[in-house]
């Protein structure tokens, strides 16, 4: 799953920063005060629960339900009697782990689905192997209205009852045990049920697009149980045989190619080939009046490739088909094997919880990600599509082919897919420099990793809330950084060969962390398990302090490690890490590196060479996951005098490391500002972005009416050269990095440097676009709309409101919604927020509108009080699953009083949901950090501005 567009967990970012290419926290979105949240999921949301409506029982489908056919029990009595059974047994709690008493070996699913209806119906026949005689079988079913259930054992049928437990757990209770003598017979649980088909984007849900309704699925992590009764844990991998019946004229898709399509009166019955063994969370369906665009035959040899869209949108699907084959080819080469599945369909879903989801054969995407018109899209849109697509394709091996046995190992999916996406893009689209963005991401997640409430990559899972929280920046981005570090340490070949051995050993099955580490250990002969253990199992980032002395040409280096913590933190220090690290230095006129595992709190090294080094860098190419510190003023000297000797990853890491040292009171803020001035001379897009972020930080915390003029002049001096170089409009043939940087520079020019020329240009472009959306290129419109909204009036608001439905592409639609959240007038902000509770804004886009209102100091208060008044309605819209992350909106604040208010608000019993506690803790801790940071830096910042 890719969470690039699921942003409820991001600290609200400054308005101008939100629209920077992929608005994702895996991509570069600076948090307001530089203190980063654990990640950036984007959560989705949806609309009111549809009424449960019972529909006719499903007819027996003898051809499909061959396991005894879906014939009701011979008694013909309704088998569900929850009250009676509940008195006799303690039903299964879905938060517990399932036992091995019954292990599923095969599913047959038959769904009757009309997306225009508010319910659907299904028959599920699950073949199981029983380990012992039993009169109860536990499994999952959530919000399903199970009409009938029985158990076929060979030719015999046993009546059964379903007893509903907590958290999506149910127990099938039998009147008598299915005895040991019957264990050899084929045993199948058969359920007939109906279920709500509502608009909350998890489980099987529906979306209205234009005049038509469609149905899609999002099952990971715990929502397959909302679509069919299931043993909904990743360790149970079985083949699935699926049938979907839809109204005539509609199409239906599932994980495998169709085996037959049959018209039955006013309905069409789709049967699909048996799947390879899948966990329930990878099963997927799509139905409705969908369009299909196919890639040329053998675009991917032997694998049909298509994009599926809602009506009228397949014309936007070509770019996705064009870029997919090269991404997949890079990965099949890496793994040394072909794709282990029969097809790739990529579905553009108009309302989607995550960024994308790696369902086998039916990969689902937010449509704004997948439907990119190459002639009318920003470089950021193209980058995001390739990055997310590479991530999902990587899951075909990491997660799909070999699946974690339990959610505590989800890093085996998400860290690997994130790492592999970076690797794939570096090979296929090196001009995008994904490795530089990965370094930036690592430094960003270190900030979240410094929280006392941070998770470990392999955090124990206690309940469904922990499962949801496992999909965060620690798993994805820290996971990628740790893998990167281990690849550097093991060597690319040993790393790859270990991965291949692991995949081969667990083909179509489950794999564990322990097995993977053993594979690496065997291939490399290195002590992998003991070296990686702390990085996986304890939270936090190491800080390596390096000191050295040089006498008679011999240099002795003293290394000392501890947990990096901001000043005032009460977090545990944890155990010392085993840190694979390489030191880089200049000796005898040459740049040399020496590598070591720092496996003790302190260690002393002697450097090679007979002269004192001109400089030392403690993390060559920033390949290691740790902060570092040099003695005295060596840090500033490295950045000021020896920057040209550093590699780009090393340069990109300078400002974030310096910021971290400031927060730990290891570097004076004044020195940090000097560093900002030095780095402002660089023109790499990532460094320019960091300098602009630093300006926003100063603006937020230290600028008022007394020094606004000095600040604006300083900001202008820094930003102007980039504005002049890049311009408002793209130039023909310009490098990708210019297109990636432009939005950030132009918005900063308008916002921080009060560049009236840029502001007027933006207003002009916005006016043209709103008169005729086809008259302006989408990249220009996206750039202009938000800037225009900052000073916009009611008339502009109305035009933007009307423009949502007229947007020529999904990306333009999102930009329009973002602009509606960017007004500064409290009245207009309130008006925009009210739209969240209407059909004008889909639940997936709620954060796009709300984020800017919280990120901007002028509108933050209005947004918070709107949230307080409309919280229940918002949760109803976005879904209870997203409520887990809603405390993050409070992290926009930077005062003790507001912290208390946020805490009181989210601590109310009626607002508590599982998993919220950790997010609330993180958000409150972020506010504390911001308060301390502001106290520490404000005086230096003001003094600096006075001297300008
Ligand atoms: Zn993923």
**Helicity, as a percent range:** 25-40%
**Main beta sheet: strand number and arrangement?**
10 strands, mixed
What spatial form do the alpha-carbon principal axes imply?
Answer: globular
CATH topology of the domain at 15-43 and 680-947: Zincin-like fold
> Structural class per helix/strand content?
alpha+beta
Bound molecules: zinc ion
What integer value in Å does the Rg equal?
28 Å
Record the strand order, biggest sheet.
3-6-5-4-7-2-1-10-13-12
Strand content: 15-25%
Number of strands: 28
CATH class of the domain at 15-43 and 680-947: Mainly Alpha
Report the average pLDDT across residues. Answer: 90
Low-confidence stretches: 8-86
CATH architecture of the domain at 15-43 and 680-947: Alpha Horseshoe
- The span between the termini is 48 Å
Number of helices: 28
Oligomer: single chain
Can you lay out the helices and strands and say which pair or pack?
Elements: H1 15-18, H2 82-86, E1 102-112, E2 119-130, E3 134-140, E4 145-153, E5 156-164, E6 169-178, E7 187-196, E8 203-209, E9 212-218, E10 240-247, E11 251-253, E12 258-264, E13 267-272, E14 286-288, E15 291-294, E16 305-309, H3 318-335, E17 344-349, E18 356-357, E19 362-366, H4 367-370, H5 379-395, E20 402-404, H6 411-428, H7 434-449, H8 464-469, H9 473-490, H10 492-505, E21 509-511, H11 513-524, H12 528-537, E22 542-551, E23 554-563, E24 579-587, E25 590-598, E26 602-607, E27 616-617, E28 627-629, H13 634-641, H14 648-663, H15 669-679, H16 685-702, H17 708-726, H18 736-751, H19 756-771, H20 778-790, H21 794-803, H22 810-820, H23 826-835, H24 846-855, H25 857-878, H26 880-883, H27 896-907, H28 916-947
Parallel strand pairs: 1-10, 16-17, 17-19, 20-21, 22-28
Antiparallel strand pairs: 1-2, 2-7, 3-6, 4-5, 4-7, 5-6, 8-9, 9-14, 10-13, 11-14, 12-13, 15-16, 18-19, 22-23, 23-26, 24-25, 24-27
Helix pairs in contact: 3-5, 3-6, 5-6, 6-9, 7-9, 7-14, 9-10, 10-11, 14-15, 14-16, 16-18, 17-18, 19-20, 20-22, 21-22, 22-24, 23-25, 24-25, 27-28
Cofactor: Zn(2+)
GO molecular function: alanyl aminopeptidase activity; metalloaminopeptidase activity; peptide binding; zinc ion binding
EC number: 3.4.11.-
């Amino acid at each position: 799953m890719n969470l690039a567009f699921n942003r409820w967990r991001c600290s609200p970012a400054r308005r101008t920063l939100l629209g920077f290419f992929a608005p994702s926290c895996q991509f570069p979105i600076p948090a307001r005060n530089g203190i980063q949240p654990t990640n950036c999921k984007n959560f989705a949301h949806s609309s009111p629960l549809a009424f449960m409506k019972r529909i006719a029982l499903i007819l027996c489908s003898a051809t499909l339900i061959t396991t005894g056919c879906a014939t009701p029990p011979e008694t013909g009595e309704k088998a569900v009697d929850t009250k009676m059974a509940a008195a006799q047994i303690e039903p299964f709690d879905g938060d517990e782990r399932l036992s091995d008493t019954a292990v599923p070996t095969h599913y047959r699913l038959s769904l009757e689905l009309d997306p225009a209806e508010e319910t659907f119906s299904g028959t599920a026949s699950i073949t199981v192997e029983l380990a012992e005689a039993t009169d109860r079988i536990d499994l999952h079913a959530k919000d399903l209205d199970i009409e009938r259930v029985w158990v076929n054992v060979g030719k015999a049928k046993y009546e059964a009852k379903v007893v509903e437990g907590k958290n999506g757990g149910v127990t099938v209770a039998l009147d008598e045990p299915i005895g040991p003598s019957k264990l050899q017979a084929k045993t199948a649980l058969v359920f007939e049920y109906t279920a709500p088909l509502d608009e909350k984007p998890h489980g099987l849900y529906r979306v209205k697009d234009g005049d038509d309704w469609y149905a899609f699925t999002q099952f990971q992590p715990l929502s397959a149980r909302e679509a069919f009764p299931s043993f909904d844990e990743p360790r149970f991998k079985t083949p699935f045989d699926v049938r979907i019946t839809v109204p005539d004229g509609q199409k239906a898709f599932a994980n495998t190619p169709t085996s037959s399509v049959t018209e039955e009166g006013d309905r069409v019955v789709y049967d699909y080939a048996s799947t390879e063994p899948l966990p329930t969370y990878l099963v997927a369906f799509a139905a409705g009046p969908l369009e299909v665009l196919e890639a040329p035959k053998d675009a991917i040899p032997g694998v049909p490739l298509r994009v599926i869209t809602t009506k009228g949108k397949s014309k936007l699907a070509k770019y996705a088909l064009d870029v997919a084959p090269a991404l997949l080819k890079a990965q099949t080469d890496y793994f040394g094997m072909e794709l282990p599945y029969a097809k790739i369909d990529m579905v553009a879903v108009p309302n989607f919880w995550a960024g994308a989801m790696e369902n086998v054969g039916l990969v689902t995407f937010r449509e704004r990600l997948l439907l990119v018109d190459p002639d009318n899209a920003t470089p950021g849109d193209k980058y995001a599509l390739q990055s997310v697509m590479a991530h999902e394709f990587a899951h075909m091996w990491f997660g799909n082919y070999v699946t974690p046995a339990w959610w505590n190992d989800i890093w085996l999916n998400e860290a690997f897919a994130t790492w592999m996406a970076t690797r794939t893009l570096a090979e296929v689209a090196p001009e995008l420099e994904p490795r530089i963005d990965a370094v930036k991401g690592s430094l960003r997640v270190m900030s979240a990793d410094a929280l006392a409430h941070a998770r470990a990559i392999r955090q124990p899972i206690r309940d469904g809330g922990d499962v949801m929280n496992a999909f965060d920046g620690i798993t994805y981005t820290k996971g990628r950084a740790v893998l990167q570090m281990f690849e550097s340490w093991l060597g690319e070949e040993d790393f790859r060969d270990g991965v291949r051995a692991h995949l081969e050993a667990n083909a179509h099955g489950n794999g564990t962390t322990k097995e993977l580490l053993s594979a690496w250990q065997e291939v490399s002969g290195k002590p992998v398990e003991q070296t990686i253990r702390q990085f996986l199992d304890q939270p936090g980032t190491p800080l390596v302090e390096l000191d050295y002395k040089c006498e008679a040409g011999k240099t002795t280096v003293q290394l000392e490690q501890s947990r990096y913590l901001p000043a005032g933190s009460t977090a545990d220090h944890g155990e010392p890490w085993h840190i694979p690290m390489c030191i880089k230095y200049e000796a005898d006129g040459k740049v040399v590196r020496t590598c070591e595992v720092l496996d003790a709190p302190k260690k002393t090294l002697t450097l090679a060479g007979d002269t004192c080094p001109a400089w030392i860098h403690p993390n060559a190419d920033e390949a290691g996951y740790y902060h570092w510190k040099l003695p005295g003023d060596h840090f500033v000297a490295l950045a000021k005098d020896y920057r040209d000797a550093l590699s780009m990853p090393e340069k990109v890491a300078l400002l974030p490391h310096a910021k971290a040292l400031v927060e730990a009171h290891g570097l004076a803020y004044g020195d940090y500002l000097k560093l900002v001035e030095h780095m402002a001379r660089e023109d790499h897009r990532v460094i320019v972005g960091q300098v602009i972020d630093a300006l926003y930080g100063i603006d937020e915390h230290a600028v008022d009416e007394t020094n606004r003029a000095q600040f604006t002049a300083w900001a202008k001096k820094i930003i102007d050269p980039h504005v002049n170089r890049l311009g408002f409009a793209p130039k023909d043939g310009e490098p990708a990095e210019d297109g990636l940087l432009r939005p950030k520079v132009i918005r900063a020019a308008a916002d921080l440097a009060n560049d009236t020329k840029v502001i007027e240009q933006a207003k002009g472009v916005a006016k043209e676009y709103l008169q005729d959306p086809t008259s302006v290129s989408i990249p220009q419109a996206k750039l202009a709309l938000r800037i225009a909204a900052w000073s916009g009036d009611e008339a502009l608001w109305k035009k933007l409101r009307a423009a949502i439905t007229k947007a020529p592409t999904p990306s333009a639609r999102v930009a329009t919604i973002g602009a509606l959240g960017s007004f500064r007038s409290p009245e207009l902000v309130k008006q925009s927020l009210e739209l969240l509770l209407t059909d004008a804004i889909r639940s997936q886009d709620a954060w796009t509108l709300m984020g800017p209102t919280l990120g901007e100091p002028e509108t933050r208060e209005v947004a918070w009080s709107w949230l307080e008044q409309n919280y229940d309605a918002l949760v109803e819209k976005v879904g209870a699953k997203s409520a887990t992350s809603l405390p993050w909106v409070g992290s926009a604040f930077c005062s003790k009083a507001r912290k208390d208010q946020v805490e009181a608000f989210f601590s109310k019993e009626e607002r508590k949901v599982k998993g919220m506690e950790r997010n609330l803790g993180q958000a409150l801790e972020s506010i504390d950090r911001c308060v301390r940071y502001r106290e520490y830096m404000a005086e230096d910042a003001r003094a600096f501005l006075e001297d300008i």
